[in-house]
Amino acid sequence: MPTTSPVRHRVTVIPxxxxxxxxxxxxxxxxxxAGVAIAWEEAAAGAAVFRAGxxxxxxxxxxxxxxxxxxxxxxxxxxxVGFGEKxxxxxxxxxxxxxxxxxPARELPGVPTRYAGEGIDLVIVRENIEDLYAGIEHLETPDxxxxxxxxxxxxxxxxxxYAFELARREGRSKVTAATKANIxxxxxxxxxxxxxxxxxxxPGIRAEHLIIDNVAHQLVKDPAQFDVIVTTNLxxxxxxxxxxxxxxxxxxxxSGNYGDDVAIFEAVHGSAPxxxxxxxxxxxxxxxxxxxxxxxxxxxAAADRIEDAVLATLESGAAVTQDLARQTGGxxxxxxxxxxxxxxxxxxxxxxxxxxxxxxxRTPDPTASRLPRWDYSVGHYAAISRALVGLDIMLESDLPIxxxxxxxAAVAGDTFRLEGVASRGTHVYPGEAVGDSVRWYTAxxxxxxxxxxxxxxxxxxxxxxxxxxxxxxxxRLQSFDGxxxxxxxQGA
Amino acid sequence: MPTTSPVRHRVTVIPxxxxxxxxxxxxxxxxxxAGVAIAWEEAAAGAAVFRAGxxxxxxxxxxxxxxxxxxxxxxxxxxxVGFGEKxxxxxxxxxxxxxxxxxPARELPGVPTRYAGEGIDLVIVRENIEDLYAGIEHLETPDxxxxxxxxxxxxxxxxxxYAFELARREGRSKVTAATKANIxxxxxxxxxxxxxxxxxxxPGIRAEHLIIDNVAHQLVKDPAQFDVIVTTNLxxxxxxxxxxxxxxxxxxxxSGNYGDDVAIFEAVHGSAPxxxxxxxxxxxxxxxxxxxxxxxxxxxAAADRIEDAVLATLESGAAVTQDLARQTGGxxxxxxxxxxxxxxxxxxxxxxxxxxxxxxxRTPDPTASRLPRWDYSVGHYAAISRALVGLDIMLESDLPIxxxxxxxAAVAGDTFRLEGVASRGTHVYPGEAVGDSVRWYTAxxxxxxxxxxxxxxxxxxxxxxxxxxxxxxxxRLQSFDGxxxxxxxQGA
Lengths: 492, 492
Hints:
homodimer; alpha/beta; six-stranded antiparallel β-sheet; elongated; ten-stranded mixed β-sheet; 18 strands; 492 residues
């Protein structure tokens, strides 16, 4: 019998677009039937909001509601073409700085896959704010587009610590960091170094680092080897969708986005407009997302009951939605509706699946903490010694490199010398230039022998280059505590 | 009986590190047994070269040899820690501008996988020069690392056309472009737009675009749906390793790197130092890479014979290397050696596999072409109208945003106004700032009402900002033919 919880929680609910309202309704019905008292604040976001002229897709009232409740359950959102250039989903993550995207992938009973019986039970912890998702892009020339990949120590520390603490909380024994540090030594390399440093604080948890392409390879070869995987934003985007494919697809893929103050729970799948309003979509992904929500607000017992009821329902095979019927070669015409599946889960509250295919989450460890280890204070940064090394000047030019190179060298002045010119990161001057020109080059100027350039010298140098060339992008070359803060060009 | 080909080809061979010499020797023996006359020019690259003090890992003599022969067969190369910061593999690709990395993944007889019988036969065509592999990284502050993702129209055009022409050449019917254009509208978006434009030139080939995370998902859910996949560098890195995991692993993963003038063929796997010199490694990947080499130099008949012999050998199960024995639960102690497997393939020359699991490559289409469609001339670029819109100035600052913002606005001058300040791409000023500071901001200055800034104004603005703040990076904001060449910050 459901016993109504004494706490009355406030939660923002965003029904969203397409099939969103149906699956959100399904989850709300189940939560109510499980006896959790929630005062839902319904809020808008997505297509209708964009069409009404709000280019963020997330109106003020919705932001206010989430600031109040600090927890949201969200259906999929669309960004209609021609309205607003940024995704409302990403805007929500950014506005509330939900830096940890958590995507469990585990084998489910009654969901046949090629990997059934192998015991997949992993969690992907994806950094959710930085990396290429900062969305800072510039056209350097009409035909050269540039995006910034940003990785910070603070952002890396937060997500990596989150992953280790999640492992402790769920009684998991291994955390794998997945990066491309072998190629991107400063950005992905920073993430890897922070991982290695933090791992020493968790002697009870096995820490390993694998290159992201190897992780993708291992996920299809032997996914059961993984426990917790922590990774940067784009890597995590790709491998979390990969992992959901191993265990039945997006219809079963739950997710939570956790920040310091706010958590937002959502199904991973899209709004599937062609199924909207037809009562046919599989609501499992959003129901399992709401289970994560319940655990987050301290309703662990109800979360366990709902999760067990979902697993028992899937295992029984008595309520099979269209997507699953299609995967199993069943009769799609006879498939269970969204509301029928919801009724079946409610009917199974109190039941547990017969087969326990995956480890059960353990009790939260009360000593879990997410405090930073590093000192991010003004004093800390002031104590780091810096030296000005030179300037990278990126420029657009139609000149052949054998003219461009000497022209750039000629304006170096007394304080600097032209170390070299690179095209798309490959050294092309001095020496033999190879490969295609894309009419965009990086001129690297470093301090001339015995000179110590100052900030003003950088501006003067840029001024001299600007007299002859159309510069598009400038980078200060620095060293920090004696280490160069930039990479050499390839083949230099 | 092998008939010796009348042509005597010159090919550079780089034995490489670890197991490299063994697998390269295996492929050379088989090619010789198949009757193709090759004058091999042996050349060095990798660990020993780095240790001898060459920071590129690729010595002059090796570069000269490849320039002469234009074709290379290469074992895996190591970049020993502490010597040279760039991978010799990447350096080779860059130096010879082998822009097309081609990675077939197809079901092999006798190699049991979860996907056996589904008929996987796809080719991943990965752009090999640009993207984050340009390797242009800067530390903006001690704790903020930045890498540049570069996508050019020319680079995109070359690889996309390569993919369509490969489809024609091999009689394939579909090309899928995989991008993250929904998030990175300028960079990945450029690749997608070029794909859509070029697709119209190939009416006989079905062209589709999928988001990269969906491609990763579909590759594990239903890989047989794919034919040719064309994608940017990092995406391609991840999904090509994923795809090789579907069909038996890296021991079977061949690859070719094609440029305008040079092609380099290599196994995908690493140097596996712990197996070096033990005669136990599976040479199939390098043998199949040498099959791609033979097709490239016009020895298609010999290539077919060797490929058939490899397939027949695998199918027979009579020569099972350690890696495969491990996968199939066979007796690793009794596994076939590298040289034993090589002997078996040579013994099977002239045989074909009984089951033809995958489509056979068709005759090259003599009309295949790779000429550019766009005009990359000086005149073309001169005709594009440009306007100077403003300046992004990235800077390091310990100030709280409510002080930093006004301070940046105060120096805008008459020509510019401060449009806003963003932190990691998210708008933080004016308005309410949310989220973590990483002490690094982007100040966006745009032309003040009615003003048309000139180049000199940019330098003056930067000078004014530099008086109060430590700028690290500057971007010229431009429009091209009336369209803004940069993205808005999130939540602005």
